[in-house]
Amino acid sequence: MTSKKSPPEIEFSEIREYHSSWSGLFFKVKKLLYSHRSPFQKIEVIENEYFGKVLLLDGLVQTTERDEFYYHEMLVHPALITHPSPQDILIIGGGDGGVLKEILLYPVERLWLVEIDSQVIEVSKNFFPWLSPALEDKRVELVIGDGGEFIRQTNRKFDVVLVDSSDPVGPSSRLHEEDFYRDLKKRLNPDGVVVTQLGSPFYHLEEIKEKSIFLAKIFKLTRLYTGPVPSYPGGIWCYAYLGGEINPSKLSREPPGGLKYFNKEIHRKAFSLPNLLKDKLG
Ligand code: SAM
């Protein structure tokens, strides 16, 4: 006679990420794969049955195996299919390598990745299979350092800059400030484009408004766009496409094959903003 009782539910611990004091997201921790404090932040990697490996910095979700492409494709491809000749590319932050792997789908010439925390690189190499091969690509130069310092010290100029910073806390806070973007603009080639992430239109509407105001003072063209990211606060994310003359609705090339989310229709629709965002931007 088989037992009617179901096997005892294995109790897993949980990681809870609060998005407001009343709401958030939780991940059951099937296995804690890594947990150490670097000189900059607490770095954790957990195994979750549904999302796979999840990277957290100071307790905030950065990327998950299952849904990383929603964010990385939407941060990279709008700029790379519209810039007329994207050869010299800069990524600031992005130590998990998700943005790097997307850019390497294009015949870019040189690519700098400036990540402040070498431990994020080492941990991500271990747990996210896409990073090591990307870092071995001859076109990539990895710089361990502060993105703000790098921008001030380098005399290089770039065609496309992608700011893949973590949340505006800890080492990342300066990457969300006006001075950083003023310095960044001086490092752009003619036709240069900057794409940065602005946060959740659901939880961070005021911050998005404030950032858009100072970005519009710095860049001749400031266009917001949105896309879904299931594991980020509110499930929808806002990005800013910043530049001079290039109009993001004019494509210079086809997107690469094999993308899971991004395509030309998604590109066009992403720049159509919901009223709650449009009204805020005036
Ligand atoms: N996609 C994630 C998100 O939207 O939150 C961010 C991915 S990536 C893990 C963010 C990276 O930015 C981290 O590895 C962090 O160490 C790095 N970072 C934070 N502040 C930085 C700075 N000032 N200069 C360079 N890298 C920085």
Q: How are the strands of the largest sheet arranged?
A: 9-8-7-10-11-13-12
Instruction: Tell me the CATH topology of the largest domain.
Output: Rossmann fold
CATH homologous superfamily (4th level) name of the largest domain: Vaccinia Virus protein VP39
Number of helices: 9
Low-confidence stretches: none
CATH class of the largest domain: Alpha Beta
Question: What is the N-to-C succession of helices and strands?
Answer: EEEEEEHEHEHHEHEHEHEEHH
The count of domains is 2
Number of strands: 13
- Radius of gyration, in Å, reads 19 Å
Distance between the termini: 70 Å
- What ions, cofactors and ligands are bound? S-adenosylmethionine
> What characteristic shape results from the CA principal axes?
globular
Q: Could you describe the largest sheet, including whether it forms a barrel?
A: 7 strands, mixed
User: Can you tell me the CATH architecture of the largest domain?
Assistant: 3-Layer(aba) Sandwich
Q: In which range does the helix fraction lie?
A: 25-40%
Instruction: Write down the overall mean pLDDT.
Output: 94
Strand-residue fraction? 25-35%
SS content category = alpha/beta
What do these coordinates show?
Helix content is 28%, strand content 33%. It is α/β, with parallel strands linked by helices. It has two domains: 9-64, Roll (Spermidine Synthase, Chain: A, domain 2), CATH 2.30.140.10; 68-281, Rossmann fold. Strands 9-8-7-10-11-13-12 form a seven-stranded mixed sheet. A four-stranded antiparallel sheet has the order 3-4-5-6, with helices on one face. A two-stranded antiparallel sheet has the order 1-2. A hairpin with a 3-residue loop joins strand 4 (42-48) and strand 5 (52-57). It is globular, with a radius of gyration of 19 Å. The termini are far apart. It binds S-adenosylmethionine (SAM). Residues 57, 62-63, 71, 92-96, 114-117, 120, 146-148, 164-167, 171-172, 174-175, 197 line the site of S-adenosylmethionine (SAM).
